[in-house]
């Protein structure tokens, strides 16, 4: 079966079925580009974002990660459902960010920071941290955004922000000296 027909047969709920779909198609080098294209269609968007996240988290090399990222970033404005936004936010650390995608990603992150869903907001903070790591001109603003989140957000969001900040901190016990 084709990827589209497999997604059409999905019940919209079963994570196990999505795992099977991914296992069936994971070795296709065009899987990620096809999933990104399907994100443009409301009919396939939920499954496509979940499958793309699974594919990227599996560490399967993309034939052209820059092209996949550019195409995904061009579709960010289509992501209205919180779960689709969350899936894509969780994909960001696995993708490159070229200069031509920065504006779309920045706008998407700002929209997600105002989302009513706490998971989306938590990963939007993570996204600003990621953005600052790739484009240092955002470092000051990202730091201020993360600090505001630590001040204003709930415990689960603060935990995600602390993970970002902990990743920046020097590793304890790694001072370079000998004992």
What is this entry, summarized?
The protein has about 180 residues and is mainly alpha-helical. It contains 10 helices and no strands.
Task: Describe the protein's architecture and organization.
The protein is mainly alpha-helical and 179 residues long. 65% of the residues lie in helices and 0% in strands. It has ten helices and no strands. It has helices spanning 3-9, 15-25, 31-39, 45-57, 65-73, 82-91, 102-113, 118-134, 139-152, 155-168. Helix 3 (31-39) runs antiparallel to helix 4, helix 3 (31-39) packs parallel to helix 5 and helix 4 packs parallel to helix 6 (82-91).
C-alpha end-to-end distance: 61 Å
Helicity level: 55-70%
The number of helical runs is 10
Cα Rg? 18 Å
The percent range for strand residues is under 5%
Give the SSE string. HHHHHHHHHH
* Major β-sheet profile: none
Contiguous low-pLDDT stretches (5 residues minimum) are 171-179
By secondary-structure content and strand pairing, the structural class works out as mainly alpha
**Total number of β-strand segments?**
0
Mean pLDDT score, rounded? 93
In one word, what is the shape? globular
